[in-house]
Structures are given as structure tokens and as C-alpha cells.
Please model this.
Amino acid sequence: MESSQNETAAMPRIGDPAPSFKAVTTQGEIDFPRQYSGSWVILFSHPADFTPVCTSEFMTFAKREEEFAKANCKLVGLSVDGLYSHIAWLRTIKEKIEYKGMKNIEVKFPLIEDITMEVAKKYGMIQPGESSTKAVRAVFFIDPKGIIRAIIYYPLSLGRNFDELYRVLIALQTADAFSVATPADWHPGDEVIVPPAGSCGVAKERMETKQQDITCYDWFFCTKKLDKEKVLNTILKK
Ligand code: BEZ
Model:
């Protein structure tokens, strides 16, 4: 097999258990995803330390870490750089970089060193069409049972939208907590989608009778209100 095929062969998919690994990080060794059992975790990769887009992303994630923590979500970064590069880069960010009102930013979440690319390859973060020596900007949303629930990939040149990452996290948790789906551009407080009724009888009943607060436009498209407070009080830690 060609090496480029090897590098892309094992891409995990939504619904798969997160591939396990042990690694050295800026916060000590981690045993992934075992030690994150019970928490959501966002595992994300960046192409390289000491690069500007990655710096803007790390500052933004570090600034918003508390917000993600309130949604029971921990952050873990990765690049194919070594530990001393990571440490020097994060120190430089804290001591020297002031960007969009963010300064003195301390990155407290772990950043994995992956010089061998072992972890990056396990997670399909090396995408040779983009780069065979750097990880793309991958984002894996992993649930408290260690199952991959969403994956987003961005190319090297494109910084991530952290409002969208937070929205995805809250939407996944809302779907789980209330057994609903979330429509296009959903934010807490917007209507949610009620899954299609399992049998024709139930679907007909829904269409004909005004069931609770459900609105049906056709048998396959029913929505209901879900208060923002109800969503946020269920999901966010006080
Ligand atoms: C950056 O983070 O700025 C970057 C990294 C790799 C390639 C292009 C941009």
C-alpha cells in the first residue's frame, strides 16, 4: 500500500469509539479517552506551533475554556510538534501576543506532542492532499461514553469558528437530553425538530390533533418550542 493510503486508511467516523492512545502533553501524560469518561471532550489538531492562525485559535479556545467547561466539555489539542516546542510557543503566547483584546492568555488545557504522528494518523488528521507533514485542523466531539459524535475538518489556511464549535456541542447535548433534532442554524431558544412518529397511526394523530406544543407541517416535519432556559439549565453547570 502507498504511504499516503496508509495515512488515510484509519479515519474514525461518527458513531465509532474514539481510538485510544496514551500520550505526553503539556499537562503531563494522558490516557485517552479513558480518563475523560463522564465528560465531553473536544480533541482538536493544529498544523504547527509558532504559526499565526494556530496562535489566534489557541488564544480563543483558552479564553473560552471556562464556557466549554460549564457544558461539561474538556479541551485537548494536538500537533505533530514536540513538547519543548509546545511549551515555548504557549509561553510566547502568554508573554508576547496581544490579539483582538486578548492578552496574557494562559493555555491550561493539554497539548499533545505527536512527533511520530501516531495519534494524528489514528484520527485521520494527516490528509496528504493538504499536507503530509502537518495535521489539518480537525475537531472531534467525543461524548461522555467515548463515542465520536461529530467531526469537523478545516484546511491549514482557515481558522475555526469557535461560536460554531460551541453551538455544535450544545446542539449534541440538547439532542441527547430532549430526544430531538436541531434544524438549520439552530441556537438555544429556537424550535427543535420532533423525530417522525414511528407508525402511520401516530403520525396521523399528530397531524389531526394538536398534540401538546407540537406543530406538524407534514408527517415528516414536526417542530416544538424548547425554551432557552430549559436547554441551558439542563446542560450548563451552575
Ligand atoms: C497558521 O496557523 O498560520 C498556518 C499553519 C500552517 C499553514 C498555514 C497557516
